Structure formats: structure tokens, C-alpha cells
């Protein structure tokens, strides 16, 4: 009984959920961003400039040379100005959105490059320490040239009829 009473009462430790009067569709921000990037890329091409020029020339030619009954925008071309202003008012925010998305991608790439560079520096420092340790270790190991010279000296002593290490017996003991 207490459990069912608790579920009906509002909880005071949590904010109330606000009910929306009208549920608006939630667009996918990534899809909108991708669309804006495509549009911004298209607007930065020569093809867009050519098509806009052709459209404006056709618009002006239609409204200058067409019979007066089918003209829709007389000489000061106020409707053309309105259309171009509307196009510019939508183009500017879309271009800014595309630039922001590119900046975000550049920032992520820069962070990855910085991390990769830090790993490379750390690896290089590690390898430098390892090479130094190997050089130190090799300094304590008999080298091939040292062994070769010792063997040649022993061969000379044997050829001379002397017992090897005759002079050094005291040192060996």
C-alpha cells in the first residue's frame, strides 16, 4: 500500500518534467551539418557561379524582353534582389556551420598529431637510452678485434717457443 502511494506522489527531490505543448521534430545535427558542408562546397565552385550567372541573366532577359503580360519582375528587379538576399542570408550561416565543423575536425586531427608526436618523442628517447645502455654494455665486453689481437699474440708466443703467459703467471694467479 505504501509502495503504490509513493509512486503516485511527485518526488520533491527531482525537477518536474515539463510537458511540451507541441512536439517538434528533432533533426539529426550531423545530417544537417553534412548537408551544409555539401552546400558550402558547391557554393565555392565555379559551377555554382556559372549557374547563378545564367539564372540571373535569364531572369533579367525574361523581365526585359518578354511581353509585358508575362513579366513577373519589372526593371528595378526588386524580386530578384529579394531572392538573392534570401539566398545570401541562408548561405552565410551554412558556410559558417561548415567552417565550424571543419575546425572541429582540424582540432581533433591536431590533437591526434600532437599525441602521435609525443609518442614518437617518447619512443625516440627510450631508444636513445637503450642504445646508450648497449654502448655501455659493449664497452665492458671483449670485442672481436681485442680477441683477435690476443689470439695473434698467443700464436706469436707459441711460434717463438715460449710458453704463453710466461711473463704473466703471477698476474693470473
How does the SSE layout of this entry go?
Layout: H1 2-8, H2 29-43, H3 46-65, H4 78-140, H5 144-159, H6 169-172
Helix pairs in contact: 2-4
Notes on the protein architecture:
It holds the Pfam family DUF1003. Helix content is 72%, strand content 0%. The protein has 173 residues and is mostly helical. The termini are far apart. The mean pLDDT is 84. The chain has one domain (28-164). The protein is elongated, with a radius of gyration of 43 Å. It has helices spanning 2-8, 29-43, 46-65, 78-140, 144-159, 169-172.
Quickly count the domains.
1
Q: Outline, from the CA principal axes? A: elongated
Tell me the number of strands: 0
Biggest beta sheet attributes: none
Radius of gyration from CA coordinates: 43 Å
Tally of helical runs = 6
Low-pLDDT windows of residues: none
What would the average pLDDT be, to the nearest integer? 84
Proportion of residues in helical segments: over 70%
> Could you give the distance between the termini?
99 Å
Question: In percent terms, what proportion of residues is strand?
Answer: under 5%
SSE sequence, one letter per element: HHHHHH
Class by alpha and beta content: mainly alpha
Question: What descriptive keywords fit this protein?
Answer:
single chain; 173 residues; mainly alpha
